[in-house]
Specification:
The protein is mainly α. It is built from 5 helices and no strands. The relative contact order is 0.11.
Amino acid sequence: MAIGPSTRAANVDRERVIGLLQTQLAAGTLSAEEFSARAAVASRARTLGELDQLTQDLPVPVPSSVERTTSDPLRGMIVGALVAVAAFLLILVVVLVVLGVGATTG
């Protein structure tokens, strides 16, 4: 059985499109009125083709994990360096405390 525009839409298909519309509303691509109108049509859609028409003119959202990776490729290295510096400072404090305690008791 081939899936095409005339294939009956399931509730999960309608929910997926409404979720995409919500994402576009949050991004400012859709106005509140346009979102409401499209969401109403999506909730009544009978076919996948009807749902596709609601999102054809919208940009494809980029997952946040991809945005984060491409916008800040050195993030992992920076975090690693900060952890290393914090560990070094902790060891230094421990050594100074031990040396300080030894000097006062000895």
